[in-house]
Predict the 3D structure of the following.
Amino acid sequence: MTTVYEKLRDRLDMFPQGFARTKSGVELEILKRLIKPDEAEIMLHLKPLPEKSADIAKRTGMDEKKLSDMLYDMSKRGLIMRRRAPDNEKYYFLTPWIIGIFEHQLNNLSKENVELFERYYHEGMVPNWKDRKTGMVRVIPVQKEIEGKTEIQPYEKVSEIIEKHTRFAVAECICRKVAKIQGHGCDKLMEACLSFGPGADFYIENGIGREITKDEAKQILAKAEEEGLVHCSTNKAGTKNFI
């Protein structure tokens, strides 16, 4: 009989980024460690587009107040996304494992969690991505050429991404933080991951990142470039919500 965690794994695997099945089942261990069974059931009812809790309650048959409280708690733990409308109404939706749930565990990186995340990276993510022709992220130039094997999209520049937004947040690099916990970190800039707009709202409200100004965002990008870091964002045209 298929468990709720197997169903949730398969649902998350429907995202373009995937959440692939592994022989060891480490991905199920991760879900069980982060998500309660009743929360997993709720996640199976969520769409990848923002919805009010009232609409989700109708679909699940749950009491709206109880569901609303659970959705908020789940979003505070980074399991699902939350957006706040101008009228202060909260909207919730399903988010991928990466970029999504994994990055939102920045404040929940125990040694045990990190070991599971690392195992899944090697057992699930690497095999799942190795034959893909289209990468999940693309390199963004900082007004000058960056040499490397990843194709640079000429129509995009970091400053253009920054100028399109009015709210900014910076968070620690979860990859470097994971490596540090494992005892092989580097000395590169730790506060280097930027989010914008609704993404910044989520990071700030959840205490994952801190709010910064537009000028501070530009300074962080310049500092990262000085340290030899390469700027990447989602591999799609249109508005970018993170670098």
